[in-house]
Amino acid sequence: MQYLVLITIVLLIVALAKSPVRPLYLFGGTLTFFYVLGLITTENLLRNYVNEGLATLVLLLLISSVLENTVFVRRNSDLLFSKGRYRRSLFLTTLVTSFFSALLNNTAVVALMMGAVKRQEMVLPSKLLLPISYAAILGGTVTLIGTSTNLIINSFVIGAGMPPLGMFDFAPIGVVLVIGGFLYMLLFSSRLLPETRVDERSDKLSYFIEARVSDHSALIGNSVIENGFRNMRELFLAEIVRGERLISPVTPSEVIETGDALVFTGNIQEIEELRSFDGLEIFEEQSGILGSNLVEVVVSHRSDLIGKRIKEAGFRSKFNAAVVAVRRGSHSLGGKLGLIRIEAGDQMILSIGPDFKERNDIENNFYLISAINKSNLLSRRDSVLTIALFVAAVVASAVGLISLFKAMLLVMLLFIMLKWSDLGRLKQQLPFELIVIVGSALGIAEVMISSGAAMVLVNLITELFHGMGHHGYLIAIYLLTLMLTEAITNNAAAALMFPIAYASAQSQGVDAMPFIMAVVYGASASFITPYGYQTNLMVYSAGRYQFSDYVKYGIPMSILYSAIVLTMLPIVFPIG
């Protein structure tokens, strides 16, 4: 049976890396398979979904959604940038990002910082956005609540019957990682990061917008210049798609025909100008929502839209939204907008209806870059009080006055009583997918250990690293986690590696904490690809990065990060 479990786990890893199926279904389906085989009891299966660590994680994510509405980062962001002083701007932006990422959801922190970077004109965004992502990763390694990965590992620790991890158990190594990462970025960012000079106008031109010539349009039979397409203020006719034929570049003498799809590049705020042309229908204008609020999003690596063509993805029915424009990193997109296959990291402009935020699965499919409803910002007084309550709860938990779960539960109740949040909003923000993934992963870990599958992997590691002693096992666990993180994302890597790390410690009769911490830090060591960590993906299109930029800038960071972790782990968490 242990080999059947191992084969299933291998198939799960392959599916996580290659399949478009969402992790929610992969983890849930795997646990259901084990349950049907009788490898886990009903009682144990259900218990994993009410694990204290998982409940704490959910509470912290909900509290974080309130803290994101404080005014400080949004209203003081201009103080971070100085013209002609790149290193100062880099230091301040990464410092602020890492500090807030130690306390808040780092996805939200990076989204806020991205907006600040894009608004300023003093430093090239390509020189700041990837460092901001790395700073968020490094900041998350300092505290228990710094990243969902740490909280997921805490869920496993509690599930294994061990004492929960402390708030600052991560800090001795995490602080050194932050300092080392800062020094690397300050010394090498100017040389290793691309200088993508994109002013505001060319930034808007990187999007493209599609409009179709209707059957009775007065544009038919007239040339491009006769129709006035060369006199538009901030839009430019880049391509014409005529049946299966792509006309690019478009000459002034090209005659417009019935059914032509006209692809414009330009300022998306000038969409109304297209309506001045008789019989020109903007893509998905029939949805009835075009022209309402525009919002900028990045397609999440968890999105079930990946691989689908835009016209097949059902934006109108699923999200009450229409795709207005799209761009992909530094790549040029062409052809009909509706035929573009969606990829993780695509940056889109959506025209949204009034209930967009209330639709299910928004957070699983998109990272929201521009604020949808800025009126939700708390006042300065309420912002101070919100942060003070949260910090007080964290400190009370850290010194042992109250458990982290109880502290966060009290804070959440206070936020509701003070009307900074409400049950309706919390229901919308409940991380259902994460609950299913973590609960299922806890059950899978239990099956791996109880069936002996984890021990089979431990024996394999023993064969490979037996000559290096306990430190060899530690290095192996860390490197395996790191490789999985780059392939299948940080949370999935942590979930699959915990039972192997725990079984390794048990087989050697040593303290499990060094091996657990190897998983913790290995799961956050995602610097080499855009896909291993969500913040790396968020900055991919906004910074016009190419995959090679992550490799060139990320490999030295990964080596430095790994050297610090593997040097300090046996010191801070002795193997004995």
Key words describing this protein structure:
576 residues; alpha+beta; 23 helices; 8% strand
Produce a short descriptive summary:
This protein is an alpha+beta fold. Helix content is 53%, strand content 8%. It is globular and about 85 Å long.
Give an account of the 3D structure.
This protein has 23 helices and 9 strands. It has 576 residues and is an alpha+beta fold. The strands form 2 sheets. A 5-stranded antiparallel sheet has the order 3-2-4-1-5. Strands 7-8-6-9 form a 4-stranded antiparallel sheet. The longest helix is centred in the C-terminal third of the chain and has 26 residues. The radius of gyration is 25 Å and the shape is globular.
**What fraction of residues sit in β-strands?**
5-15%
Low-confidence stretches: 286-292, 371-375
Alpha carbon gyration radius: 25 Å
Calculate the mean pLDDT score and round it.
83
Helix/strand class: alpha+beta
Distance between the termini: 32 Å
Strand order of the largest sheet: 3-2-4-1-5
The coarse silhouette is: globular
User: How large is the count of helical segments?
Assistant: 23
Write the layout of secondary structure elements.
Blueprint: H1 2-18, H2 23-36, H3 42-47, H4 52-67, H5 72-75, H6 86-101, H7 106-119, H8 129-140, H9 148-159, H10 171-192, H11 200-205, E1 208-213, E2 235-242, E3 245-247, E4 261-266, E5 280-282, E6 294-299, H12 315-319, E7 321-327, E8 347-352, H13 362-365, E9 366-368, H14 380-398, H15 404-417, H16 423-429, H17 432-451, H18 453-465, H19 469-488, H20 490-508, H21 513-523, H22 534-542, H23 547-572
Antiparallel strand pairs: 1-4, 1-5, 2-3, 2-4, 6-8, 6-9, 7-8
Helix pairs in contact: 1-2, 2-17, 4-9, 4-15, 6-7, 6-8, 6-10, 7-8, 7-22, 8-10, 8-22, 9-20, 9-21, 10-23, 14-15, 17-20, 18-20, 19-20, 19-21, 20-21, 21-23
